[in-house]
Each structure stands twice: as C-alpha cells, then as structure tokens.
C-alpha cells in the first residue's frame, strides 16, 4: 500500500449475541461515531445541486474544517449497512464504512471494513496510525459494552457509569426524588427513572419515550406516564412536542409548547409538505430538566439505519443496477417506495407467500400493486428507470411506543398538572383515525328519586372516577362529561373496546358500586378536528356526532359499535381471542341527524340478552 493511496482495514469481532439482538446497538450510528471520537456534524448548504436523499455535511473542530457529500446509507436489517462519503475539504478524499453481521453457532461474527483515501501524501501516515491503533481500540471497547448489554438483555445505561450532572444538582435531585415518590406513590418506577437520568448517554436522553421504558421495565404504561408527568411538574424532567413526518417517521419539527406548534410543516429529507395530526404524528417526549442535566444539542450522524427503525431495507441503485438484499421479515404488510416516485407497492408477508420476487423499477409511477411474499424471500430489485434512485421497504403498521397528543392532552393527570398546555384558540388541528367513546348512565332519574340528590350525586361522581381511571389505563382520556354521560378519546379502537368492557364488568359484577348502575356505550372511529374550547381540548366533526348517536341507540348494558370499529384488524383479533365473552348481533340503525342513510352497526354485550317469553 503506497502512502496517499486508499487504505483498507478489515476487522473481525466475535460477539455472543444474535444479529437481531445486536442490531439496535450496531445500527445506532450516531452513538458509534460519538464513541469513536468523531466531531459533531451539521448540515451545510454549499451546493444547490445535492441529489435527493444525499446529505451535505461538515464539522469544525480546532480550526480544522471539513465538508463532504454523504450518500444515503444502504442497509438490510439486521445483517449489514454501509455508507460512503466524498470529501470536498479536509484530511480525507473519500471514506467508506461497512458493518456486516454473520450469524454463527455462538452468536455473531461482525466484520467491519473501512476504506480511507487521504486527500494528499502528507496526511497518509497520520491517518494510518490513528485508524489502526486508536479507532480500532475504541470500537473494540464499545463492542464489549454492547455485548455485555445484549447478552444480559439490558439497556446500555444499565452497564454504564453515572454521568456528571449540573453543579449542585445531586443534592437537589435527592430532595426532588423523595418529593416525586411522595406525590406518585411509585417508588420503583421513580428509582428507575433517576437511574436513567444519571447513567444514560446524552443521545438516549434527547427524546425519552415513557411507554417504551414501561414495556422494558415491565410496568403499566399509565403508571410510568404518571411518574413522568409529576417529574416534569417538579422540574426533574422537561417535555416538548415532536411532530413527525408521516413518510420518513422522523421527528422533523419540535415545539416546547403546544401553542407554539404549527399546523403546516415541511420535511427536508422527503422534500414534501405535511400537516400536524393530533392523533398520528404529534407526540409527547421528555428529556432531563436543564437544571438537573444539560443535554447538548449535538449530532454525530444524521442518516444511519438507527434513525428509521420502521425501515427494513434501504438501497441506492444507479441506472441499470440490480440488488439482491437479504431479508428476514415479520408477518405483516410492507410498502416498497423510492425517492423518485410518489406511489408505492404493497408487500404482504405471509409464511406461505411467494419466495422469488423481482421488482423492476421504471419511470412509470408505482401504482399500489399488491403481492404476497414469504418472510425470507429471494428478492431482486432492478433499476430500469432513467435516473439514479434510493429505494426502501417500510413496515406499514409499525408502531412506535409513543404518547400521542390525542390521548395525553385529555388525560386527567396532564390536564390537572399542566392546565395551560393546550392548542392556540385559533388552531383547528386534524385528528386522523381517532376513536370516540360515549358512555351513558341509564335510569339515573330513578336513582335520584330513590336515593335523594345528595346520595345520588356522590355515587354518580364516583362512577365518573372509575371510568376516568379505566380510560387512562387503556391509553385514553376523558374529553368532557355531559350530564351523566362521558365523552372519551382513544388513539386506537381496540383500546376503547377494552375500556368499556372493563367498565361494564365493574358495574355489572361489583356490589360496592350498587346494582342501579347500568352503562351503555357507543364507539366510532374516523377523522375529526381538535380545537381549544374554553381552555381544554375538544373534538368536533361527523365522527363525534356518529359516536354520540350510537350510544343513544344502545340498550341497557350494550356496546354499540360502528362497522369501521368492528372491522379494524386489532378489534377483530381481540374479539376472536375473547369470542366466549362477547355476544355480537348485527343490525341496521337510523341515527338521529342522519335521516338519509342507515348505518351497519354491531350490538355487543358481555352477557346474553334476556329471552322474551310471549304468551
């Protein structure tokens, strides 16, 4: 190898964990570059001709300035990824990196390859020494931590040493921890949160998702959220609102207050406009309060596979190129798309699907054609179009364990602790595919007559508290109460069904609440509009109107659901698993205010309706 020419480094590491278990750590290129000692990067705009999907990046450290054009990462989850940088200024002329995970009987063989081309002869020897002795040692040290965490099923912060807090924060945090335990009554969750704040890396604390932690900790999501909200009230945590691009799923816009959020937004990566959606892309995220631990706003990589966990492969193809990516997919539905096309292809993954799949990309628009493929297909992708392109496969129903604005903004904990956190009075925000539940307390008039106003009011208020608790535990929120009725909002239909099932069971079987409580309910699912009404979030639209009419049409101890709710895949799955619990009857109903149409509805009961004996 001559000085000044390309240098190749090929390192192999044997790790005692499977590629799937290692992938979340190895695909986090932001963390890896930081561990390797890289300088924070930033977007630059020196060129007006940057190809779509490419990034123009740079860094400035110790008066050493570098800029480069970075190709889109190519990856195949959980096996390999690679990237290439073409430098315009700096010590290097070109850099290519690849990581490949090969399954073995003992875990994974990780092959790391680095190609370096110095910009001139002078830098060649220095780069060789730095790469061979410093970079390799740092990478090996990081992989030791990864292997320990992955093999023990732990998160990285659980095998890391405590980090430095803000001066004076240690004493303050001890006092606030006791206060948090006192108000939340959840010592175990509080202690886990404090450990996270003290030990996690900066990049893990930029956006903390309580529901993901609840899943890992084995705690109820409602309980973890309750602790996080109280922690924010005590200034242990701070929160803000991410508004994610619906195409790339990335949080491209963040607002500290809901009133600051803009409805119309733009994603630079996708080069497309998008709108804020209260139920689909607006999410509550947390980070440590800056008076406890300051998280620097630094990024070491902007385009790695770890930034898009819903994307199973991404490939760059020149004109006439072919790719044969290695796939291992879960059963479900996926979308094949490219940066050059607005449309997509639909890939249904089933165990009995087709094994040999050929995708030919032309200049014609992708028309939504559907095909059923196996979980490990022999896939080939050919670029027969007239331009270079980036293609990718995304999981359609990929769900991040995020807290969406629709559910949290109406939760009792949030509204009590942060009553001023709401939309601007002039804002009208779309809430797509939101689920509305109405419940009604039947024969309440008889209750008031029989028990008197004071006793009846107490029992009705107690009934509201029970419903409020159950709705919160099922990822919903009480929008408002109307007389003896409740209007609640949920992120998805199956949560509303689970909530009303529990409500019905309590008021049907528990003697502590009295036999006079007879609840009926109506559930509908669709689009509506979220607004600020009298300082609280409220919802308007046809979806709300239909749900309110469904509860009016329901009978005693009956759940009236629309066809849209009943046909939702998650609802169907839940009903199938509990087929012995539910008794379902199909019917046609005319709803008040919708005189020109009949609605297909399902009448669901938790007990068989009484038989009428006609003599």
UniProtKB/TrEMBL annotation:
What the entry lists under SUPFAM superfamilies is as follows: Bet v1-like, Nucleotide cyclase
Pfam families for this protein: DUF5939 (PF19363), Guanylate_cyc (PF00211)
Q: What is the lineage of its organism?
A: Bacteria, Pseudomonadati, Balneolota, Balneolia, Balneolales
What domain of life does the native source organism fall in?
Bacteria
Q: What is the protein's species of origin? A: Gracilimonas halophila
- Gene3D superfamilies on file: Nucleotide cyclase
Q: Which residues form the Guanylate cyclase domain?
A: 435-551
Q: What is the official name of this protein in its record?
A: Adenylate/guanylate cyclase domain-containing protein
């Amino acid at each position: 190898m001559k000085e000044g020419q390309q240098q190749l480094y090929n390192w192999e590491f044997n790790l005692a964990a499977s590629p799937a278990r290692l992938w979340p750590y190895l695909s986090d290129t932001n963390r890896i570059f930081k561990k390797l000692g890289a300088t924070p990067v930033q977007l630059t705009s020196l060129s007006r001709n940057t190809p779509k999907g490419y990034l123009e990046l740079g860094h400035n450290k110790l008066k050493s300035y570098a800029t480069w054009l970075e190709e889109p990462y190519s990856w195949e989850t959980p096996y390999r990824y690679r990237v290439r940088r073409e430098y315009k200024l700096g010590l290097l002329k070109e850099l290519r990196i690849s990581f490949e995970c090969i399954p073995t009987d003992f875990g994974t063989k990780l092959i790391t390859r680095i190609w370096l081309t110095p910009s001139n002869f002078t830098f060649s020897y220095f780069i060789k020494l730095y790469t061979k002795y410093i970079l390799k040692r740092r990478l090996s040290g990081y992989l030791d931590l990864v292997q320990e965490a992955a093999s023990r099923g732990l998160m990285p912060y659980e095998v890391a040493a405590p980090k430095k807090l803000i001066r004076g924060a240690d004493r303050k945090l001890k006092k606030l921890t006791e206060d948090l335990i006192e108000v939340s009554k959840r010592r175990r969750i509080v202690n886990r949160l404090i450990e996270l704040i003290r030990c996690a890396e900066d990049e893990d604390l930029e956006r903390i998702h309580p529901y993901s932690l609840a899943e890992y900790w084995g705690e109820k999501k409602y309980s973890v959220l309750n602790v996080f909200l109280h922690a924010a009230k005590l200034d242990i945590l701070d929160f803000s609102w991410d508004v994610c691009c619906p195409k790339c799923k990335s949080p491209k816009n963040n607002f500290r207050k809901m009133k600051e959020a803009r409805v119309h937004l733009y994603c630079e990566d996708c080069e497309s406009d998008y709108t804020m959606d209260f139920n689909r892309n607006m999410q509550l995220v947390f980070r440590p309060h800056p008076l406890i631990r300051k998280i620097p706003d630094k990024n070491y990589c902007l385009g790695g596979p770890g930034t898009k966990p819903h994307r199973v492969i991404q490939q760059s193809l020149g004109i006439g190129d072919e790719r044969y990516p290695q796939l291992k997919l879960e059963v479900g539905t996926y979308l094949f798309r490219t940066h050059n096309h607005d449309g997509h292809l639909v890939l249904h993954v089933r165990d009995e699907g087709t094994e040999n799949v050929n995708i030919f990309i032309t200049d014609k628009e992708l028309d939504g054609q559907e095909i059923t493929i196996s979980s490990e297909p022999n896939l080939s992708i050919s670029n027969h179009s007239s331009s270079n392109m980036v293609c990718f496969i995304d999981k359609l129903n990929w769900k991040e364990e995020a807290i969406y604005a629709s559910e949290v903004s109406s939760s009792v904990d949030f509204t009590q602790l942060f009553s001023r956190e709401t939309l601007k009075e002039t804002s009208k925000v779309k809430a797509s595919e939101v689920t509305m539940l109405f419940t009604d307390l039947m024969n309440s008039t008889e209750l008031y007559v029989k028990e008197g106003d004071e006793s009846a009011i107490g029992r009705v208020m107690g009934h509201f508290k029970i419903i409020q608790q159950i709705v919160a535990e099922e990822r919903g929120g009480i929008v408002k109460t109307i007389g003896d009725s409740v209007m609640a909002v949920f992120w998805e239909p199956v949560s509303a069904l689970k909530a009303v099932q529990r409500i019905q069971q309590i008021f049907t079987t528990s003697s502590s609440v009295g036999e006079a409580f007879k609840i009926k309910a109506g559930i509908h699912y669709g689009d509506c509009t979220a607004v600020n009404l009298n300082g609280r979030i409220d919802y308007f639209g046809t979806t709300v109107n239909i749900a309110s009419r469904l509860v009016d049409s329901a009978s005693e101890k009956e759940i009236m659901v629309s066809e849209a709710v009943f046909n939702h895949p998650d609802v169907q799955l839940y009903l199938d698993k509990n087929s012995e619990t539910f008794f379902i009857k199909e019917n046609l109903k005319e709803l008040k205010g919708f005189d020109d149409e009949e609605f297909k509805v399902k009448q669901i009961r938790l007990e068989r309706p009484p038989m009428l004996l006609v003599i």
